[in-house]
User: Which sequence fits this backbone?
């Protein structure tokens, strides 16, 4: 697909080619993935100071092959960067807002939670994810709640519960790994070892 080609080129820092790929994808069918890609490409092309800013949520994942499973660019974060410089990037802002308009309400709350999580606004991030879950119980929202609670005053018990909720919906190596970390931190070593062992085969699938 054109949008997958766009992200492959984006990761290679070939932003002009990536932009063309995302635009081609939108000509076939307008979709939020491509609008977000367009926004991030426009930011990268027009503001070289953003070269080291990733268009995807790097806290969560490892390789490009896992991109569609857990990593994806965030429109709210993109809007923030679009207005961070002295000259706002209105084209990028429009692309990100078009992306959000293509998403369902639960997806927008999930994106907002992710953007807040990245700037350490844990209580607000938790609130956004909880609102998302009320609309749709998605594994990624539970996963991120686990991260948020672990970082917010080290609430291990709640983190463990949310990671397990996430795994019950969809198994992912990173969720097992994070679960293992919290279990180890709370000295539940046998259970931590089990979680780490379960993480490995899921990780090997994406290599």
Assistant:
């Amino acid at each position: 697909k054109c949008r997958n080609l766009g992200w492959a080129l984006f990761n290679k820092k070939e932003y002009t080619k990536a932009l063309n790929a995302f635009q081609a994808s939108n000509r076939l069918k307008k979709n939020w993935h491509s609008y977000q890609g367009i926004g991030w490409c426009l930011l990268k092309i027009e503001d070289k100071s953003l070269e080291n800013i990733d268009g995807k949520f790097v806290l969560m994942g490892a390789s490009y092959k896992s991109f569609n499973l857990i990593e994806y660019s965030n429109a709210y974060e993109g809007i923030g960067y679009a207005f961070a410089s002295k000259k706002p990037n209105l084209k990028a802002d429009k692309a990100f807002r078009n992306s959000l308009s293509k998403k369902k309400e639960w997806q927008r709350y999930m994106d907002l939670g992710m953007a807040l999580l990245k700037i350490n606004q844990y209580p607000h991030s938790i609130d956004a994810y909880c609102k998302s879950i009320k609309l749709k119980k998605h594994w990624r929202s539970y996963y991120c709640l686990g991260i948020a609670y672990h970082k917010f005053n080290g609430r291990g018990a709640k983190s463990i519960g949310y990671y397990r909720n996430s795994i019950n919906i969809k198994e992912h190596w990173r969720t097992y790994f994070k679960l293992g970390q919290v279990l180890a931190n709370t000295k539940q070593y046998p259970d931590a070892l089990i979680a780490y062992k379960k993480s490995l085969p899921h990780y090997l699938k994406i290599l």
In short: Residues 189-204 form the longest helix (16 residues). Residues 56-71 have pLDDT under 50 and may be disordered. The two ends are 21 Å apart (CA to CA).
